[in-house]
Every structure is written in C-alpha cells, then in structure tokens.
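Final report, results section. Input specification for complex C-07:
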Amino acid sequence: MIVALAVCALGGLWFLIRRHIELSRPLAVLAWALIMLGVVGVIVATLVGRFGGLYTFLYPLPFHGNWPGWSTGVFLIGLVLVNVGWMIWCLQMLGAVLRAFGGLRGALAWDYVWHRQAFQAAGRQPPPPEAFPALVAGFDGLIAGMDATLLGVSLLVRWLDPRVVINPFWAKNLTYFWAHTFANLIIYMLAALIYVGLPYATRRSYHISVVLVIGWWSSMIFILTNYFHHLYMDFVQPGILQYFGELSSYLTAVPVTAVTVFSALMPVWQSRTRWTLGAIFLYSGLIGWVVGGIGAEIDASVPFNLHLHNTLWVPAHFHTYLLGGCLLFVLGWVFLLLESRSARETSGIMRGTIVALSFGGMIVFLLDFYFGGAYGVPRRYATEPAPGPILAQIATVGAAIMLAGFALAFAEGLRLRWSRAIDRPLWPGELREEASHEG
Amino acid sequence: MDAAEKLLLTFIILAAVAASVFVAVGWSTRLPEQEQAAVQHRGYVIPGRWFTGITLFLLAVFVGTIPFFPYLAAAAALQPAEKVPVIAQQFAFIMPGQFPLNRRILFEVTSRDVNHGFGIYNPEGQLIAQTQAMPDYVNYLAVTFHHPGHYIVRCLEYCGVGHAVMEKDFTVEGAPPAPMPMMQPPSTNNVGSSNESNPFE
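Structure output:
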C-alpha cells in the first residue's frame, strides 16, 4: 500500500514540476523501473521464498526465520533497488526545483519571507506552491535514502557473511528513520495535487503566503525528527530523544494544519466550487489527513503510547491518512483529469452512491481499528485476542462496502475515459482559465 | 466509563469537530459567492493566530504529559524492588509464573534472538505496561500489581511467524510469597514504570 501510493505521489509530483522545468524522462523511467524491480523482488521473496521478516525487517529478524537464506537476500536486494529508484527520483526532483526557482535560497522563498518589500519591489515571485512539496521530498528523501543505503548495505554484508555482527539498536533507529520518513513524505508529496487541483475545482487561485512557506520549512525539519516516537518503548534510547520525539511529533501538527486546513479551506469558502466526483475526493482527502493526524498525535503522546504502542491504533491512524487521505487525493486528481478531458461529470445519483458506499464503509473499517487499539489488541497478529475477532468481522463488512464504492468509482472512471467527447488538453490549469472565461 | 472508552470518545469528538469544519466550509459554497480577495483579506488573519495558538496549546500539552512519562521513573528506580529477569525468545517468555501483590517488581527484559515486545495485560484484558525486549540490551520496567488475578504477557513486536502465539500467563496473589532478595536497580535511564493504571483514566 505504501509503495503503491508512493509511486502515485512520485508520478504526480513529477508531472506537476515538469510544467516549470524540463525533466529527463529516461531518468524518471529508470527510477520507476528500479522501484518496480525491487517490488518484484519483495513479492518473490515473500510468496516464493516465504520470507516472513515483514516490511519493517528489524535486525536480526531477517536472519532468524524458518525461510531459506536466498529469500532474505532477494528481499534485501529488492528493498535496496526500491531505495535506489527513490533516490534517483529525489535527486532529479531536488535538482529540478533548485534550477527552476533560483537555487536553495529561491526554492525556499527565503527572500520572500525575510526581505519581502525588496522582493516585491524587484517584481520577483515566490515559487508556486507545488514546488515546496517537491523541495521537501527531494531533500528529506535523499537524507532518508542515504540512511537506507547504509542500513541496506550493512544487512547485505551480514547476509553474505554471517560472522558480521550489527548492533540491533543502531539498526532499529536506522530502520524506523527511513521507513517513517518515506511513509510520511507520501502525503506531503500528494499535497501538491491539492495545490493545483483545488484551484481548478474552486475557480480560485492558490495563494502563497509567508505562513505557508514557514510551514513548509518547519515540515522539512519535523519530517526528519518524528521517527523517534517509534522507539518510545525502547527505554535504552537516550531520554532526551524521547522528549524531543514527542515535542517534534506535536509541532508537526502546526504546519500541517496551517498549511492544509487554512490554505485549502480558504479557496473553497463561499466559492463557486463544482462538486464533481474529483473535487469531492480531493477535498475529502484533507479530512482523512487531519483525522489521521489526530489519531497520530494521540499515539505520539508517550503516556498514551504506553498503552497503544504496537496495538491496532497504529494501523488505525496510518490507514486513515493513507486510505482516507492519500488515496483520495490520488482519486480526486485522476477524476479531475478525467472530467476535464471528457468534459463530462458523474450524475448526482452515481456520485451520491459512490460517496455513501466508499466513505461509509471506510468509516466503519477504520473505526474498528481504533476500537481494537484502544482495547489493546496487538497489531500483526494472525489470530487476535478479544475483542479483535468481532471487530475484524465488522471491519470486513465495512471494507466490503468501501470496496463496492471504489469499484463503482473505477467503473465510472472507465465510463468517463471511454466517453471522451473531445480531445481536450490534459492539464486542468488551462481549463481553469477557460472556465473562468465562461463564468 | 473505562479508559479505552474515554480515549475513543476523545478521539471521536476531535475527529467529528475537524470533519464538521470541512463540511461547513464545503456547505458555504451554497451561499452567495464572494470575491477571493475579500475572503483572503479576512481569512489570512486566522492562520497567524492559529499558528501561535496551536503552538502554545501543543507546548502546554507536551509539558502536561511529562509527569506521566515512564522514563521519569529512572529517578524513582532507586526505590527497592524485586528484580525479575525476563528473557524473550521465538516464541516464548522465560519468566516466573507468580508475583506478589502490592510489591514493586522490576522486570529486566531482554531477548535471546530477535526484537520482541513485552506487554502486560491485566485480568480485564487491558494493556497496563510494556517495553521492548531487544537482543544485547536490557530494558527495565517497574510495575506494581495492585489487583490479584490472572495476567497475560503478550509479544508486541513482530518476531516471526509465531508472533501471535507468543504469550505467557502469570498470577498475582493476595498473600505475598516468601520475600525475594531486595536489590537496587541500576542507575541507568533505561527504566520505565507502570503503576498499573492508565494515565488517561
């Protein structure tokens, strides 16, 4: 799920930045191919080789299972390939943003924030909003990628030579730093779709502000320092990092709410928004982000984490913002494109049915995770203690309803694609201008 | 209302309030349209205030949670306690099956092979304390059992295909058994504590 949404985010952001500067297609295809090759390796290791070290693969578990050694190697090589592809994308994106917007100073909108009068007097413009997720993903992604390279090489050396000993606590820190940063960056990258898609739906422009820029600066730092909350229950971790972990996790909410809530709500407020299926998905994804964030903040509080760590509360909050946030951003964007290209919209009945089924089912599905977590049901259990089984049964019904909704959305997407009336440009920005002329 | 219900209620209320804001803003598109400049003029006052307000609120919450951090118990670790070694391994816990009531137990938790979790569930099935069990390291977890009954330790870190069956039962009895040798815990900071109570109760 994480890699699938990550690939959506990589493609989406690449597409948006390419509007501002030329990007090498072969390099992007290479990054994509390496990621896909890595995914194939992970699937082969898991399904054929029965590798059971999980995607968190905490050292030394990959070397302590009842699966053949080759599957551990294929799994690790697969992850390294995913990471290499990811780093190529990050390098390309970071380079593009720095070239397009005047180096690091320009891309950060440094002068826009600190020397605003001179900046405006010179007739300069800050980078467009989608440049900030690209900069943050490129910069933070490269740091996480370097961490993953160090970890991956260490584990591969251990795989080749079992005499090599790795410090498990060092490996644990590296693993969570990479995994958390990678997973966390997905939603920040997909925020770019909001910045470009929402103005199209609302027929308003997305306004860059000092608050938004500072919000992205702080996100750039907090994304890298949040992973400490994964080690709250490791009492050998230096105490100062535990305190810092909670503080950092809390402060993450400030730029997210300032950037997400206000910057996205303002274009909608009393606007002429056309609530097409694409606009509904895109806008609703923001709710998933915020609600998932609330669940995350509760879990990031050490006193609560003592009772929620590695319970179903963890998948509860990340499913909320991956399923109810990231996936909806992606669907929203795809439907906006389909609607713009086909010049058609989904009927009111179909729209209502899709929304009721997919959102209703999703709420049931997600709430069961939260209930399970609050009652201490552990995650990653093949057979859960009570009340896990009954909650799982209810969640299954919710998931089935949600999938029925998404299946309808898929069918509707195909209909829009096939019923393309005119060959309109893919880019909604041009259509937004058209719409405003029509309006 | 037990701790889990309070936690869920808090989450659901916060989530509902957040969702309501989005629904209300979405609903506002039914109102007469306003020029973007007018909305921005009034609207941009809010983020600045929100930025400051939410920052101060979260800082206050951070300070408020500090007394409940388990790590602070490192200072209290000097109190006498019964040291109980716990060794986790795929897929079992090696530890005693009986503990006394109202006596401070200092679990010395480590692992023989891979990362495991050490989560203690009380007779009502609530997760009352936990720490990680790591190879090469010892995590110290201080717990005082105030209620007699049947407790279960479950592994809370994925440790392989038998993860879900890795558990250990123990009982806490009213009449304390013969006293175990009292020892001073090490003065390290890798100590956590639980007083068999939920901080959100």
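Residues 431-439 of chain A have pLDDT under 50 and may be disordered. Chain A touches chain B through 81 residues (CB under 8 Å). This concludes the modelling results for the funded period.
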